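User: Can you fold this complex?
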Amino acid sequence: MSARDVFRKIIGIELDENSPFGYPARQRTLDVSHNVILYLDDITVSFDGFKALNKLNLMIDAGELRCIIGPNGAGKTTMMDVITGKTRPDSGSAFFGQTIDLTQLSEPQIAHAGIGRKFQKPTIFEQHSVFENLELAMTTDKRALTTLTAWLRDDDRDRIADTLRLIRLDGEADRPAGLLSHGQKQWLEIGMLLMQEPKLLLLDEPVAGMTDDETMRTAELFVSLAGKHSLVVVEHDMAFVKALGGKVTVLHEGSVLAEGDLDAVQNDQRVIEVYLGR
Amino acid sequence: MREPLIFRMLSALDARARLGVAAFLAVALGLVPVLHLALPPESAFHVSTYAITLLGKIMCYAIVALAMDLIWGYGGILSLGHGIFFALGGYAFGMYLMRQIGRDGSYQSDLPDFMVFLDWKKLPWYWTGSDSFLWVALLVVVVPALVAFVFGYFAFRSRIKGVYFSIITQALTYAAMLLFFRNETGFGGNNGFTDFKRVLGYSITSSETRLVLFGVTAGVLALTFVFARWLVASKFGRVLTAIRDAESRVMFIGYDPLWFKLFIWTLSAVLCGIAGALYVPQVGIINPSEMSVANSIEIAIWVAVGGRGTLIGPIVGAFVVNLAKSWFTVSFPEYWLFFLGLLFIVVTLLLPQGLVGLWHTLRRAKGART
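Assistant: Here's the predicted assembly.
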């Protein structure tokens, strides 16, 4: 046993997630035996009396690619906040797989359980290089004291290099991320999500600000990720939603208005009234 | 197998920084003692006791500035109450210095003079062991760490940020100052601790003791700098600046900012405590005014003037502001605070990166011309 191991034992960071220095890399076992990865059941969230979510019910299958659409204020971002632990629901339950109760976990714990989130506005570390952004996101032991002595192994570098190629930023690895174009920032954030190896990806308007070409490449990427990962995509861009080709859920005033494939949804009279008809 | 930590720490320094640290140590540990002891006082190159005390004091401030920069410049957490940790370290070591006076005080008692004056018959329980250097050295580290850890845990867990955090730190140091002003607290009240005679049995006023204290302070400053360089270049440092720039993103990729903030906050407090312990024997006094809000704000000004988010900046800032202060308070004592305020405004408006930023801008401008 090295001196460092002894030191770690003494300050207790070998203990599991209750240890005072953050969370270990241990993944909670995700039980998808019923082939469902996410259950939202009767979720209600209100802000000063305004019901952002009103008895929302949603089920995402394992490996599914689901699009969520809906007018502004329909509750799309609040729904993501509930799933990722940022907002606690007033009532209802949120389960990841059969066993993981999301309403009981903190944001970092949910991240470790296997849910990755991309924000509406690209949120990356602008002062850090592209490479460092991916490095920070990479799955590993993310407790404070372990991070202090963490170092990159060769296979870590390979993983980062693979992701850099996938998001087409391999030429920009050492540039500060703040200097990237808007579309590149979106891709970098998607790359950071992938470095986390999540089971479920929540993507809030991932193609906002991208060129048509970039948008279509993103759609291809997402389609290729489905199956191995489950994806929930919030988007306004109908061409993009069409290219993704998955099931579409329409949110309106905090609950599900319609669900089905894009054509069926677009022809739904209620949907046309609240959203598409305008 | 990786190299031992100390080698990795040194390898975090680039060649220029290594040269700088070596040059600094050569001057502080070699040149200054020689110029002080070997040359007669009337020589132009003689370094006076006054100069050694002043520089020693400023080096303590530089350690505090570095500690402040770690949490403010890199962690994005502005503390306006760092004086409390400095003073706690100073008071802890002051207890030892008070006990070292022995029976040489005005009342020739085993108890410190202020206790005799208050008619106390024995030492309060928390003075137990204060005659042991090692115990007190432990207190210097543990007391600021404990206060910072407990305070930080609740503040960061409640996600208190920005100006709210700054205000609470001010309240903390202010409350501590009021507590230490009371005679009943057992730390000398208004007057604090002073009239020290010895440290580790050696006379505290002798040239040799002063040079040793000066040298130790220089060594601690250099170590702190090397350690801080390594820390900010580590992955921990990258997560820390990531928290500063986009905290929610850090949480959603699985880091809990609480423990990162708490670690750097506690570390910063410990560094301040050590600086305080080095400061007291050199300056010869510690009293509750070290915990005043104005003192803590001044720490932030050193860092802002030097340039936060760089490690050389706070050291430069501590030296420039304090040398200016010792000149001003002799030449134009009534204008010092006006000057300090003006300096802060000028730096905030015109030099957001401080003097170090100005230096880089000038060098780039020069490079562009030639």
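Confidence is low (pLDDT under 50) at residues 11-20 of chain A. Chain A has one domain: 63-88+104-276.
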